[in-house]
Amino acid sequence: MGDKKNDEENISDINFYLNTTRDPKLGNYLVPDYVGGKVAIDLGSNLCLFEEKYHDRFDEIYFFEASYKNYTRGTLNLMNKSIKNCVGFNLAASGKSGKIVKIFSSKSGDSGSGSIVKVDSNNLKDYHNILTISFKDILKLINKEFINYLKVDIEGAEYELLKNADLSKVEFIAIEIHNMLGEEKIQKIKDKLLKTHKVVKSISAIPNARNEESCYQLIK
Questions:
Q1: Which stretch of DSSP H or E encloses residue 4?
Q2: SS3 of 167, please?
Q3: Residue 14 lies in a domain
Q4: Is residue 4 one of the residues assigned to a domain?
Q5: What's the total number of domains in the chain?
Q6: 86 three-state secondary structure
Q7: For position 12, what pLDDT does the model report?
Q8: Residue 70 maps to which CATH number?
Q9: What is the pTM of this model?
Q10: Considering only CA atoms, which of 121, 113, 120, 118 is closest in space to residue 102?
């Protein structure tokens, strides 16, 4: 028989991961009809809301989340719903692999707003260390040379992630570009994306109020 005290502690731990102050909402991501039945990568999966909604559109979804708490909650959510075609990694997407960085929680309490980028909205006293992984090494890790869908919502780390990434290996990109980066870096991200892709949908940023959410299709 199991130890009742240990069982109660385990249940308490699970309940901790299943509760938070403010849960994020899924962004305005577009999954066109021609995309699907193949491979997707979700960078910044938060609580796996994308996986929950779109798992039946893809053969495989690989999700990456820097926050251990969010990663655990998201994984538990998928397990509870018997969603089996999604594989997760507790890693921070960034420009280089193998760096140990801090993932800070948000002062707002929003579980989806934690970031490895230091900004005023971070709670610098509430963090844990996490290992980074580059886009190139993400493809190596999942053993894919080309993917059909890439979702990027990594709270300001998208600049470092994308600036040297080979985006010609991605059919469709849905990205949230955060205004915390400033106009110069935001424009550099757009210029980088437009070298290989064309815009098919965009909700423009409003400074200090809303980030830009855009979708890009590979130019063939």
A1: helix 4-17
A2: helix
A3: no
A4: no
A5: 1
A6: strand
A7: 41
A8: 3.40.50.150
A9: 0.87
A10: 118
Structure tokens at 216: 């890009």
Q: Give a yes or no: residue 16 inside a domain.
A: no
62 and 42 in contact (C-beta within 8 Å)? yes
- How many CA atoms within 13 Å lie on the side-chain side of 112? 19
Neighbour-count burial of 144, counting CB atoms closer than 10 A to its CB (0-12 exposed, 13-18 middle, 19+ buried): middle
Find the length of the chain.
220
- Domain assignment of residue 9, yes or no: no
Token pair, residue 52, equals 């929950």
For residue 65, the surrounding DSSP H or E stretch is none
Give the integer Cα–Cα distance in Å for 151 and 61.
10
Strand 86-89 versus strand 212-218 pairing type: unpaired
Parallel/antiparallel/unpaired status of strands 197-203 and 212-218:
antiparallel
Q: Which amino acid is at 89?
A: F
Q: Which domain holds residue 146?
A: 27-218
Tell me the pLDDT tens digit for each residue of 89-140: 999 999 999 999 999 998 887 777 889 998 888 888 999 999 999 999 999 9
Please give the structure tokens belonging to residue 97.
């692999």
The neighbour count for residue 186, using CB atoms within 10 Å, is 19
